[in-house]
Protein backbone atom coordinates (compact mmCIF):
# COMPACT_ATOMS: atom_id res chain seq x y z
CA UNK A 1 0.00 0.00 0.00
CA UNK A 2 1.41 3.39 -1.00
CA UNK A 3 2.01 6.09 1.58
CA UNK A 4 -0.38 9.05 1.50
CA UNK A 5 2.61 11.29 2.12
CA UNK A 6 5.93 10.58 0.45
CA UNK A 7 8.77 9.62 2.75
CA UNK A 8 12.43 9.80 1.64
CA UNK A 9 14.43 6.60 1.63
CA UNK A 10 17.88 5.26 0.87
CA UNK A 11 18.08 2.13 -1.29
CA UNK A 12 21.21 -0.02 -1.39
CA UNK A 13 21.71 -0.65 -5.10
CA UNK A 14 24.28 -3.15 -6.34
CA UNK A 15 23.11 -3.18 -9.95
CA UNK A 16 21.76 -6.68 -9.51
CA UNK A 17 18.34 -8.21 -9.98
CA UNK A 18 17.30 -8.11 -6.33
CA UNK A 19 18.35 -4.57 -5.47
CA UNK A 20 16.76 -3.24 -8.67
CA UNK A 21 13.47 -4.92 -7.77
CA UNK A 22 13.79 -3.46 -4.28
CA UNK A 23 14.22 0.03 -5.76
CA UNK A 24 11.11 -0.46 -7.89
CA UNK A 25 9.14 -1.59 -4.85
CA UNK A 26 10.25 1.41 -2.79
CA UNK A 27 9.04 3.73 -5.55
CA UNK A 28 5.78 1.82 -6.00
CA UNK A 29 5.12 2.00 -2.25
CA UNK A 30 5.25 5.77 -2.43
CA UNK A 31 8.67 6.46 -0.95
CA UNK A 32 10.56 9.42 -2.31
CA UNK A 33 12.81 11.05 -2.99
CA UNK A 34 14.94 7.94 -3.31
CA UNK A 35 18.68 8.01 -2.68
CA UNK A 36 20.72 5.26 -4.33
CA UNK A 37 23.84 3.94 -2.55
CA UNK A 38 26.38 1.59 -4.13
CA UNK A 39 29.83 0.38 -3.10
CA UNK A 40 33.09 -0.07 -4.96
CA UNK A 41 34.68 -2.41 -2.44
CA UNK A 42 37.29 -4.07 -4.64
CA UNK A 43 34.91 -6.71 -5.97
CA UNK A 44 35.97 -8.65 -9.05
CA UNK A 45 32.50 -8.13 -10.60
CA UNK A 46 32.75 -4.33 -10.73
CA UNK A 47 30.68 -4.29 -13.92
CA UNK A 48 27.75 -4.19 -11.50
CA UNK A 49 28.62 -0.56 -10.67
CA UNK A 50 27.93 0.57 -14.24
CA UNK A 51 24.59 -1.23 -14.01
CA UNK A 52 23.83 0.50 -10.70
CA UNK A 53 24.43 3.92 -12.27
CA UNK A 54 22.14 3.11 -15.21
CA UNK A 55 19.43 1.87 -12.89
CA UNK A 56 19.64 4.91 -10.60
CA UNK A 57 19.19 7.17 -13.63
CA UNK A 58 16.32 5.05 -14.94
CA UNK A 59 14.47 5.34 -11.64
CA UNK A 60 15.25 9.07 -11.37
CA UNK A 61 17.01 8.73 -8.02
CA UNK A 62 17.49 12.07 -6.31
CA UNK A 63 21.16 11.17 -5.88
CA UNK A 64 23.34 8.17 -6.60
CA UNK A 65 26.52 7.73 -4.61
CA UNK A 66 29.27 5.16 -4.99
CA UNK A 67 31.28 4.71 -1.80
CA UNK A 68 34.83 3.42 -2.27
CA UNK A 69 36.15 1.07 0.38
CA UNK A 70 38.78 -1.63 -0.08
CA UNK A 71 37.67 -4.95 1.37
CA UNK A 72 40.55 -6.57 -0.51
CA UNK A 73 42.66 -5.52 2.47
CA UNK A 74 40.99 -8.34 4.39
CA UNK A 75 40.29 -10.72 1.50
CA UNK A 76 39.06 -14.19 2.49
CA UNK A 77 36.38 -14.08 -0.22
CA UNK A 78 36.35 -15.19 -3.85
CA UNK A 79 34.94 -11.74 -4.68
CA UNK A 80 37.82 -9.80 -3.11
CA UNK A 81 40.77 -12.21 -3.10
CA UNK A 82 42.72 -14.52 -5.40
CA UNK A 83 40.28 -17.38 -4.81
CA UNK A 84 38.41 -19.15 -7.59
CA UNK A 85 34.68 -18.47 -7.84
CA UNK A 86 32.81 -21.80 -7.49
CA UNK A 87 31.15 -22.94 -10.71
CA UNK A 88 28.52 -25.47 -11.82
CA UNK A 89 27.28 -26.29 -8.32
CA UNK A 90 23.85 -27.70 -7.60
CA UNK A 91 21.68 -26.12 -4.92
CA UNK A 92 22.54 -28.73 -2.31
CA UNK A 93 26.20 -27.75 -2.57
CA UNK A 94 25.34 -24.03 -2.57
CA UNK A 95 23.51 -24.34 0.74
CA UNK A 96 25.67 -26.98 2.43
CA UNK A 97 27.87 -24.31 4.00
CA UNK A 98 28.53 -20.60 3.79
CA UNK A 99 30.29 -20.28 0.41
CA UNK A 100 33.65 -18.72 -0.33
CA UNK A 101 31.84 -15.90 -2.21
CA UNK A 102 30.62 -14.59 1.16
CA UNK A 103 32.37 -11.26 1.85
CA UNK A 104 33.04 -10.92 5.59
CA UNK A 105 30.59 -8.48 7.24
CA UNK A 106 29.68 -6.91 3.88
CA UNK A 107 26.03 -6.10 4.58
CA UNK A 108 26.86 -4.91 8.09
CA UNK A 109 29.36 -2.48 6.57
CA UNK A 110 26.98 -1.38 3.81
CA UNK A 111 24.08 -0.80 6.19
CA UNK A 112 26.36 1.16 8.51
CA UNK A 113 27.27 3.52 5.67
CA UNK A 114 23.59 3.81 4.78
CA UNK A 115 22.79 4.64 8.40
CA UNK A 116 25.42 7.38 8.42
CA UNK A 117 24.06 8.94 5.23
CA UNK A 118 20.52 8.57 6.53
CA UNK A 119 21.39 10.58 9.62
CA UNK A 120 22.92 13.33 7.49
CA UNK A 121 19.88 13.42 5.20
CA UNK A 122 17.36 13.06 8.01
CA UNK A 123 16.11 9.84 6.42
CA UNK A 124 14.70 7.06 8.60
CA UNK A 125 14.05 4.37 5.99
CA UNK A 126 16.63 2.19 4.26
CA UNK A 127 15.81 -0.51 1.71
CA UNK A 128 18.02 -3.52 1.10
CA UNK A 129 17.33 -6.23 -1.48
CA UNK A 130 18.46 -9.23 0.53
CA UNK A 131 16.77 -12.58 0.03
CA UNK A 132 16.90 -15.49 2.48
CA UNK A 133 15.44 -18.19 0.20
CA UNK A 134 17.13 -18.35 -3.20
CA UNK A 135 20.59 -17.39 -1.97
CA UNK A 136 23.79 -19.16 -1.03
CA UNK A 137 23.28 -19.20 2.72
CA UNK A 138 24.89 -15.85 3.52
CA UNK A 139 24.26 -15.08 7.22
CA UNK A 140 23.93 -11.33 6.60
CA UNK A 141 20.81 -11.84 4.49
CA UNK A 142 18.74 -13.36 7.28
CA UNK A 143 15.77 -11.61 8.92
CA UNK A 144 17.38 -12.01 12.37
CA UNK A 145 20.40 -10.00 11.24
CA UNK A 146 18.27 -7.22 9.76
CA UNK A 147 16.17 -6.99 12.92
CA UNK A 148 19.30 -6.84 15.08
CA UNK A 149 20.85 -4.11 12.92
CA UNK A 150 17.65 -2.08 13.10
CA UNK A 151 17.62 -2.31 16.89
CA UNK A 152 21.26 -1.26 17.04
CA UNK A 153 20.66 1.67 14.68
CA UNK A 154 17.87 2.98 16.89
CA UNK A 155 20.27 2.99 19.83
CA UNK A 156 23.23 4.47 18.01
CA UNK A 157 22.33 7.77 16.32
CA UNK A 158 21.56 11.29 17.39
CA UNK A 159 18.46 11.36 15.19
CA UNK A 160 16.94 8.42 17.05
CA UNK A 161 18.15 8.96 20.61
CA UNK A 162 17.22 12.66 20.72
CA UNK A 163 13.91 12.22 18.92
CA UNK A 164 10.67 12.80 20.79
CA UNK A 165 8.23 9.99 21.59
CA UNK A 166 6.17 10.72 18.47
CA UNK A 167 9.15 10.55 16.09
CA UNK A 168 9.47 7.69 13.63
CA UNK A 169 12.15 5.12 14.36
CA UNK A 170 14.83 4.03 11.90
CA UNK A 171 13.55 1.17 9.73
CA UNK A 172 15.34 -1.39 7.57
CA UNK A 173 13.01 -2.55 4.79
CA UNK A 174 13.73 -5.93 3.17
CA UNK A 175 10.68 -6.56 0.95
CA UNK A 176 12.29 -9.52 -0.84
CA UNK A 177 13.55 -11.44 2.17
CA UNK A 178 10.89 -14.17 2.08
CA UNK A 179 10.48 -14.38 -1.72
CA UNK A 180 11.93 -16.89 -4.14
CA UNK A 181 13.91 -15.61 -7.11
CA UNK A 182 10.96 -16.39 -9.40
CA UNK A 183 8.61 -14.40 -7.16
CA UNK A 184 11.06 -11.48 -7.14
CA UNK A 185 11.23 -11.50 -10.93
CA UNK A 186 7.44 -11.64 -11.30
CA UNK A 187 7.05 -8.73 -8.87
CA UNK A 188 9.66 -6.69 -10.73
CA UNK A 189 8.01 -7.33 -14.08
CA UNK A 190 4.69 -6.19 -12.62
CA UNK A 191 6.45 -2.92 -11.76
CA UNK A 192 8.03 -2.58 -15.19
CA UNK A 193 11.60 -3.53 -14.29
CA UNK A 194 13.86 -4.15 -17.30
CA UNK A 195 16.11 -6.93 -16.06
CA UNK A 196 18.33 -6.46 -19.08
CA UNK A 197 19.76 -3.46 -17.19
CA UNK A 198 20.90 -5.60 -14.27
CA UNK A 199 24.09 -7.55 -13.59
CA UNK A 200 24.36 -10.49 -11.19
CA UNK A 201 27.41 -12.54 -12.23
CA UNK A 202 30.28 -13.00 -9.77
CA UNK A 203 32.84 -13.71 -12.49
CA UNK A 204 32.01 -11.81 -15.71
CA UNK A 205 34.35 -11.62 -18.69
CA UNK A 206 36.13 -8.42 -19.72
CA UNK A 207 33.07 -7.34 -21.73
CA UNK A 208 30.83 -7.70 -18.70
CA UNK A 209 29.08 -10.82 -19.98
CA UNK A 210 27.87 -13.23 -17.33
CA UNK A 211 29.68 -16.54 -16.92
CA UNK A 212 26.43 -18.48 -16.57
CA UNK A 213 28.07 -20.94 -14.16
CA UNK A 214 28.63 -19.22 -10.79
CA UNK A 215 26.07 -19.58 -7.99
CA UNK A 216 24.60 -16.15 -8.72
CA UNK A 217 24.14 -16.90 -12.42
CA UNK A 218 22.62 -20.32 -11.74
CA UNK A 219 20.12 -18.92 -9.25
CA UNK A 220 19.25 -16.13 -11.68
CA UNK A 221 18.71 -18.63 -14.52
CA UNK A 222 16.55 -20.77 -12.24
CA UNK A 223 14.47 -17.75 -11.29
CA UNK A 224 13.69 -16.79 -14.86
CA UNK A 225 12.92 -20.42 -15.76
CA UNK A 226 10.53 -20.83 -12.82
CA UNK A 227 8.91 -17.48 -13.57
CA UNK A 228 8.42 -18.73 -17.14
CA UNK A 229 9.83 -15.55 -18.67
CA UNK A 230 12.73 -14.91 -21.01
CA UNK A 231 16.13 -14.34 -19.41
CA UNK A 232 17.62 -11.13 -20.91
CA UNK A 233 21.09 -11.74 -19.46
CA UNK A 234 24.12 -11.49 -21.78
CA UNK A 235 26.07 -14.70 -21.23
CA UNK A 236 29.61 -15.33 -22.43
CA UNK A 237 29.90 -18.14 -24.99
CA UNK A 238 30.69 -21.53 -23.48
Question: What's the rounded overall pLDDT mean?
Answer: 93
Indicate the percent of residues in helices. Answer: 25-40%
CATH top level class name: Alpha Beta
Shape descriptor reads: globular
Q: Any low-confidence stretches, pLDDT <50, length ≥5?
A: none
- CATH topology name, in short, is Rossmann fold
Domain module tally: 1
Instruction: Tell me the structural class.
Output: alpha/beta
Gap between N and C termini:
44 Å
* CATH A-level architecture: 3-Layer(aba) Sandwich
Q: What's the Cα radius of gyration? A: 17 Å
How much strand? 5-15%
List SSEs in N-to-C order. EHEHEHHEHHEHH
What's the CATH superfamily, by name?
HUPs
Helix segment tally: 8
Main β-sheet description:
5 strands, parallel
Would you mind describing this structure in some detail?
The protein has 238 residues and is of the alpha/beta class. The protein has one domain (7-227): Rossmann fold. 36% of the residues lie in helices and 12% in strands. The chain is built from 8 helices and 5 strands. Strands 3-2-1-4-5 form a 5-stranded parallel beta sheet, with helices on both faces. Helix 1 (17-28) crosses helix 7. The protein is globular, with a radius of gyration of 17 Å. It starts with 6 loop residues before the first strand and ends in an 11-residue tail after the last helix.
At a glance:
By secondary structure, this protein is α/β, with parallel strands linked by helices. It has helices at residues 17-28, 47-58, 91-94, 106-121, 143-156, 158-161, 181-190, 215-227, and strands spanning 7-12, 31-40, 63-68, 125-127, 171-173.
